[in-house]
Every structure is written in C-alpha cells, then in structure tokens.
Amino acid sequence: MSLLRWDPQDADRFRDEMNRMWSRVREDWNLDSTRPKTHVHQVENGYWIEFELPGVDPDQVSIEVDQDSLSVRGKFPASPIERDTREGESFHAVVNLPSDIDPDSAQAEWRHGLLSIRVEKAGGRRRHISIQAH
C-alpha cells in the first residue's frame, strides 16, 4: 500500500478544470442562449425588471406576475437568412423578488426589443398583463 500526500490545491485545480470544461460545453451547446438577459433594479417603491429580447414580437410574449415573482414566456423568431441555434426556440424566464409585490400595479413597456416591467411592492394575486409596444 502506498501513501500519497494530499495537496489542498488539488481540489481547487479540479474545480477550475471542471468549470473550464462546462463553460466550453455551454458555449458549444449554446445552453444559455434560450434565456433572455435579465436586469432587475430595486427602485423606491418597487422593482424595474428588463428583458433583452431583440427580434422577438411583443405579441408573442406572455407575462404573469404574482406577489413574489414574475414570469416571461415567448419564442425567438425563426429567420430564413441567418441560422442561429436559438431562433425558433421558446424561452421562459422567472424572476423571484425578495419582497411581496402588487400584481395589479404591474406595467409592461416594449421599446426596440427591450421589455421593461415595473411593479410596486405590496401583496396580491397573480394576473396576466399586456405589453404596450412603441
């Protein structure tokens, strides 16, 4: 039986190698592409949430909000000219918020592929909201 010395840095090297390997897999398989970029900002009495959805038709986006979360669903458009792996794929993003919000206060605005949703803090029930395109 042979004894090997354990080097604590071996675990760090293993973790780093696994992270490198999985980041290459994510890039190769384009795993993050069906999730829109999302930005959440806390404002004085609520939240301002933005979703980057270039090329998406706002009429094909569905938004639901309840007292502590926001859900956005839709589909990236298919293009006959450019071939992108996310085109024609559905997306679904859920934003969990740290405090209760008032679903009745939710307002959605669409401008140049950017979906902006504003909700006020409070409590309430789930409801469907429409998008105002500019």
TrEMBL record:
* UniProtKB keywords: Stress response
Name the Gene Ontology biological process terms. response to heat
Q: Where is the SHSP domain?
A: 29-134
One Pfam family for this entry, by name? HSP20
Query: Does the record's keyword annotation contain Ribonucleoprotein?
Result: no
Name the family the entry cites: Belongs to the small heat shock protein (HSP20) family.
- Provide the protein name: Hsp20/alpha crystallin family protein
